[in-house]
Each structure stands twice: as structure tokens, then as C-alpha cells.
Amino acid sequence: MKTPRDLLLARHQAANPKLDALRHAVVADLNRQGAKTRRPAPRFAAACRGWLQQVWLELVWPCRRTWAGLAVVWVLLLLINVSQHDRSPVVMARSSPPAAMMLTFRDQQKMLNDLFADHAPGPDVDRPRIFLPKPRTETLEQATV
Amino acid sequence: MKMPEVADIEPLPVSQARAGEPAAWDTLFRRYQLPLYVYVFELVRHEQAARDLVQETFIAAVRHLGSLREDAKFGGWLFGIAHQKCLQHWRRRQEVLLAEIPETYDDEQDGPDDLLVRREQEAAFMQLVNQLPLPHRAVLLLHYLEDFSLEEIARITETPPGTVKSRLHYARKTLRKLVEAKNENPA
After folding, report:
1. Is B119-184 a CATH 1.10.10.10 domain?
2. Could B38 and A27 be called an inter-chain contact, meaning their C-beta atoms sit closer than 8 Å?
3. Nearest-CA neighbor of B165 among B152, B150, B147?
4. CB proximity list for B153: less than 8 A, separation 6 or greater
5. Rounded to a whole number, what is the largest CA-CA distance in chain B?
């Protein structure tokens, strides 16, 4: 009694020598190509490659969807960040107010300052001293009296 | 001669093959050459063509090993290449015999796969395998030769797992009927 597998393999057992020859040909070709192109890789580089491959297979590949999702989120965050800090000359020119508006604003501020400076009561120290120039003779008289 | 076991105890040297070691490739090819040949031959029914396709499969495997993601799935990946080579062969020869039979699958569960073929049934068994439509034959061969799971067979043949299940069920049921009928009427 044979299993179907045994039966199938036994039926084609005669093909094995030819398959061996075929295999040897492919491997010999591989050997020739390897001898032409292969260079002894530095041990450190080989170790690094192996380590990277292991990390890729064990850490990245099993949760590739999660990593891809995180990457998308980071890219979105980066895009939002960049768009908010756009400092191109066009944007700067667009955002700065025109000169006429600035002049008007300064005039208004000056007027307001003048108004509040005249009427605002406050302690003497805070009040600006008004110095009225007088002839020197008058000042001398006041001093002697 | 002892047949190679389906489940190998020693892991296959796929990582060494990735590094381009010819000895590793030799081991891999030796392990799969006969099952691969049987699979290809039973599909194309031509000795020389089958050998050529096996050789093309080996060469493609060397070239494209980088596309294999998991070393443990080397067998299924290799059979997938062979399957594609068979499809290309049929297309070249304009002999696509992919005649479908209705994909009917009743809910009757398959029993354990304990099908054993007696010596006097061997020829009839092979004849019946040959009579199966190509898609069913491919699924059955993959199942018996390498004991691939439904998902692996689905990947190799690029067919939905439900279809694979249906085909496998049909093929096994037909074979079982044959074996049982022969057992009842040994004459």
C-alpha cells in the first residue's frame, strides 16, 4: 500500500538522473557567475546587512500596516507644520499692512496720546514738567527775593 | 529508494541561498527537483517540456529569490513559479485546457486524508488523476506532493481559497470513490 505521494514520486523516479544533471548545470552556472561577480564582502558589512534584514523581517514586516499608518500620520503632521510656517516672500508681502494704513494708524495713536496726556490726572511725579523759558533777569529776581 | 519526506526536520538553507551560496542552492534544488518535476509533468504531459520548465523554474528562483518574504514558504513560492511557467507553456502552445466543471461544494466534510492505494489500483489511480480537469489535477497534486495548505495552494495557483477547497474536495471524492469501488470488487 502506498500513499498517493509515494505513488506519484515512484512513478517518476526514473527522471531523477536527468534532473540531477539539470540541477548540476544550473548550480555550475551559478558558480561561474558567482566567481565573476562575487567579491569578498567585508565581515562588518555582512553583519550589518544581516542585522538590518533581521530587523526588517522581525520588527517592521510583521506590523507593516501599523508602520505605514504611523508614517502617514507623521507625513500629515509634517505637511500641516510646514503649511503653518510658510514664510515665503509672497505670503510676507500679503500679510504686511500697506504703508498708508500704517501712517493713519500712527496718526490716530498720536492723537490719542495727546488727548490723554492733556486730561489725565495723576501724581505730580508722573505729570510731565512744563518748562517755559523765561528771560534770565526774571529768574535772577526770583532767586534774590 | 526512500522518498524524500514532506516535512523536513532540518531547515532549508534559504538564507544561505540568499547570500548566493551555490551549495545552498544545490540542497534546495535537490530537495524539490522530483516533486516539482512530477507536478509539472502531470500538468504538461511531456517529458522534455517538463524538464525544461523545471530548469526555467530553478533559474527564475535564483534570479527572484529577493521577492520571497518568508524563508519558510520557499516550497510554495517555488511551486508558484513552476505553476506560472506551466501557464506560459500552455499559452505558447495554445493548448489551454482549463475547462471548468461546476464548482459545487457540498458541506460534507472530507474525512482524514488516509487514502492508500493498493498495488493493483496504482494504474487506475494514475489514470483517474490524469482524467481530472487541469485545475483539479493541479490542486490535487500540490496537496499530495507537498501537503500544502489550502491557502498555500490558493497562492500558488492564484485562485480563491474557496475554489481550491471545492476543487480539492471534488478530486478527493472522485479518487476515494474509485479506491472504494475497487476494494469492494477486487476483481
Report:
1. yes
2. no
3. B150
4. B139, B142, B143, B159, B164, B168
5. 57
pLDDT confidence band for B162 (50 / 70 / 90) = very high
Q: Is A5 within 8 Å of B144 when comparing Cβ atoms? A: yes
Distances (CA, A) of A126 to A112, A113, A117, A130, B95: 18, 15, 11, 12, 107
| Minimum-distance CB partner of B3 among A6, A22, A23 | A6
pLDDT tens digits along B28-42: 999 999 999 999 999
Minimal Cα distance from A7: which residue of B? B122
Q: Supply the ipTM of this predicted assembly.
A: 0.75
The whole model's pTM is what? 0.58
User: Is the domain covering B14-93 a CATH 1.10.1740.10 domain?
Assistant: yes
Residue B111 carries which side chain, given as an amino acid letter?
A: G
pLDDT digits (tens, 9 = 90+) for A86-123: 665 655 565 566 788 888 888 999 988 888 776 655 55
Q: Which cell is B8 given?
A: 523536513
Task: Return d(Cα B161, Cα B158) in angstroms, integer.
Answer: 9
Q: A3: nearest CA in chain B?
A: B116
Is B34–A5 a contact, with Cβ atoms under 8 angstroms apart?
no
Cβ(B82)–Cβ(B57) under 8 Å?
Answer: yes
With contacts defined as CB-CB under 8 Å, which chain B residues touch A39?
Answer: none
Find, in chain B, the residue whose alpha carbon is nearest to that of A18. B51
Domain map (residue ranges) of chain B = 14-93, 119-184
| pLDDT tens readout for residues A34-71 | 776 655 556 778 888 888 888 888 888 888 889 999 99
What are the extents of the domains in chain A?
93-144
